[in-house]
Amino acid sequence: MKYTYYPGCSLHSTAEEYNASSQAVFRKIGIEMEELKDWNCCGATSAHSTNDYLAHALPLRNLILAEKQGNDVLVPCAACYNLLKYADYHMRTGGKDSEQLNEDMQEIMGAKYRGSIQVRHVVDVFAEEKVREKISSLLQKPLTGLKVVPYYGCLLTRPFKVVAFEKNPEQPVKLDQLIETLGAECVRWSHKTECCGGSFSISQPELVLKLTRKLVEAAQYAGAEAIVTACPLCQTNLDTRQHTAGGGEGSSIPVFYITELIGIAIGAEGSTNWLKKHLINPVPLLRSLNLLAAS
Amino acid sequence: MSFAMDYYPNQVIRYVQLGGKDKVLSSRSIWVCACCKTCKDRCPNDIDISAVMDALKEIASEEKASLGDNLVPAFHESFLSSVQKYGRVYEAGMLAGFKLKTRTYSQDMQLGMEFLKKRKLKFLPEKVGQIREIRQIFEKAKAKERSR
């Protein structure tokens, strides 16, 4: 199986470790990926908050490019995934509006979207039985003793009609299963799908501080030593707003991308470089459990 | 996020039903809605509250001289001007634009330093090859706005 890989803007900047760990893990598992050529920003929260047309047209350009390239699109960023999926849904169900939009794209790019590809999130692909079996068979360092909570946030699960890849989006389980596959302890908690505040980290930091504090407290209350995410906004918000530079206080717990944990467990290359990007240093926790070699 | 709202989401919907246009368009609620879509998925009447919020933001930006919040709209503007220019978000430039626009220089200064230390921000923008296509998408979007 080969995928067209859509990294998105965050993965080329603040979330570089999510990009590097995703690529390293897929390479190790043997799933081939080719980056989408000349991809553009999905428009994120800013487009859908202020201009309905942009919110559909920006991701649609990527879908049309992906269709030319030929394979299903694989997306690690939960926000990009959500918006690409939304555009795909709009084109399949949007009636006259979507037809007009397709005409516009024909005029702009010389091509229309035919809906011949699927948009997939990395968690959904990892959770496929075959892929999970492959991960199991590659385990070099089971994450024994690592207690983590799976944090799905908003954009992977809502709106469930459009984006959900879970049977019950109020109680998603695919990240849980992956964590267990890695040999870590998946801790039950109350805030799996609560919101971290997303892009408000820049415009309304005090609101994000409140939301992230609640999330971290809930994770600690449940007995977790770390949080696992599959979204660059969730990871960045939780990581930076616990740090004193971001207004955080008291005890703090590391926030991992799921791909980082898979990478460490299956011995994918580069894990120490990924972890250096975190503001809350996860190395002491991993060392205390003998999950990282002492350097 | 309702703790930061002047009207709760159900009140916003009620004002829309009753024609309280001015109240909702000048509210803070529409801007601090984080678009988490929890209300949409749980609404017993199947109202797409987050889509209503988005529509209200769009109308407020077009019609209102003063908005219920200035920081969030300024962020969206900085973000989209970066996308229009490069086709991708140039985070360092977008942040600088936002700080200049809102004069919030000192806020998160320390965090910015940490980001630079960790090299989490890139100094140079990435640009889409066919930037002409992005510009045309933005032109069409503007034209749609005007034709309403």
Descriptive notes:
The complex is a heterodimer of chains A (295) and B (148). Chain A folds into two domains: 2-121, Glutathione S-transferase Yfyf (Class Pi), Chain A, domain 2 (Up-down Bundle), CATH 1.20.1050; 127-288, Rossmann fold. Chain A is built from 15 helices and eight strands. Chain A has helices at residues 16-29, 44-50, 52-69, 78-93, 95-109, 122-126, 129-138, 160-163, 174-181, 200-203, 205-221, 232-240, 258-266, 271-275, 283-288, and strands spanning 2-5, 32-35, 73-75, 119-121, 147-150, 185-186, 226-229, 255-257. In chain A, the strands form two sheets. Chain A has a four-stranded parallel beta sheet with strand order 2-1-3-4, sandwiched between helices. Chain A has a four-stranded parallel beta sheet with strand order 6-5-7-8, with helices on both faces. In chain A, helix 1 (16-29) crosses helix 13, helix 2 crosses helix 3 and helix 3 (52-69) crosses helix 4 (78-93). Chain A starts with a strand and ends in a 7-residue tail after the last helix. In chain A, 58% of the residues are buried. Chain B is mainly α. Chain B has two domains: 2-63, no CATH class; 71-147, no CATH class. The radius of gyration of chain B is 18 Å and the shape is globular. The model of chain B has no long low-confidence stretch (mean pLDDT 94). At the A-B interface, helix 2, helix 3, helix 5, helix 10 and helix 11 of A face helix 4, helix 5, helix 6, helix 7 and helix 8 of B.
